[in-house]
């Protein structure tokens, strides 16, 4: 028996092997049989065979302790810790028990909490389906998938929005999932459906949620997201951490988009991808939905009148401010798109103001560049005036000559037309 502050750990004893079994083990060993075959012949474990072969005289008198077990009170304490402070971690339970004076192995603790572990796992997997009334809720989530665009594999983020009642889908492809993309995507979804739901259920994303205290049920959204919800007159909710099934309609929608809409398809541009997603979501609205047994578009006719009207005027999406270091080629990177800055700012840090359709670059309080926002991955948005004075006339002529020698028929002007998006 081992004494502890809060109780004892009990040890039982397993009787030794019968003497004739031990004699047989040793006889087979003397005949040159290996421990594995002896164990199979005698019907005991290989380790037991090894111990008796190794033990010599008196080995048959060895006794093995039974597995340690916690007392009923200690098991009760272990289960409480497992549910509470240890958050389902048996190693932490063992450490907390040790602080209270109860020593036990991790395996002993695991045996004590096995029922609790199964119960918690079942709770985590079990889902109570919650059906919403027409116009009540829109669920939204982001997914990501590498997609071939113009021959290059690009990580594309896509927002999936689903109306809770009708199951109509909206998908928008983007190059990041920051707050600006979340808000522009949500605004586009409401516009696509032609109205606003009363509530909006989103993921526990860092771009939208500052803090989510599950125990105290306190939820704090980012100021930008709160302002967006006020402007659109929608009540925001977020699913609990690690409980993605709370928004199961979009969880299944994200998987549906990855496997069906995108699969391994290739696209020439992000715009072509977006056009494909809109066309695909229209077809998805015509299928018989597995849960409702109705076509989402037909079911939407019952929901359309319950949606709140869209704002009379378009609402601006909050701006995003970034700090970037100007590269040696006079460009700054925003969501894989590169924008030119006057070459005198190379290696300096600048502030980039990102709006939905425009990018403005500042050095301190001075505006140094303004561009239309690029929407294609790895696109370059160039203002030729930013490079004036960088090339001396004879250097430019020499470069033209070298380019002609390597790539006949191509000129710097031709490349400038490609970079600036002008037809060649």
Mean pLDDT: 79
Over all CA atoms, what is the radius of gyration?
A: 34 Å
Uncertain stretches of 5 or more adjacent residues: 1-15, 57-62, 242-248, 418-424
Percentage of β-strand residues: 15-25%
Report the count of strand segments. 19
Largest sheet: 6 strands, mixed
Q: Helical percent range?
A: 25-40%
Number of separate helices: 14
From the spread of the alpha carbons, the general shape counts as elongated
N-to-C CA distance: 89 Å
The SS-based structural class is: alpha+beta
Condensed summary:
The chain is an alpha+beta fold and 424 residues long. It is built from 14 helices and 19 strands.
Give a written overview of the molecule.
It is a single chain. The protein is of the alpha+beta class and about 425 residues long. It has 14 helices and 19 strands. The chain has helices at about 20-30, 35-40, 45-55, 70-85, 90-100, 105-110, 115-125, 180-195, 225-230, 250-260, 270-285, 295-305, 395-405, 410-420, and strands at about 1-5, 5-10, 15, 65, 135-150, 150-165, 170-175, 200, 210-215, 220, 235-240, 265, 320-325, 330-335, 335-340, 350-355, 360-365, 365-370, 380. The strands form 6 sheets. Strands 5, 6, 7, 8, 11 and 12 form a 6-stranded mixed sheet that branches. A 4-stranded antiparallel sheet has the order 13-16-17-18, with no helix packed on it. A 3-stranded mixed sheet has the order 14-15-19, with no helix packed on it. A hairpin with a 2-residue loop joins strand 1 and strand 2 (about 5-10). Helix 1 runs antiparallel to helix 2. The radius of gyration is 34 Å and the shape is elongated. Mean pLDDT is about 80; it is low at about 1-15, about 55-60, about 240-250 and about 420-424.
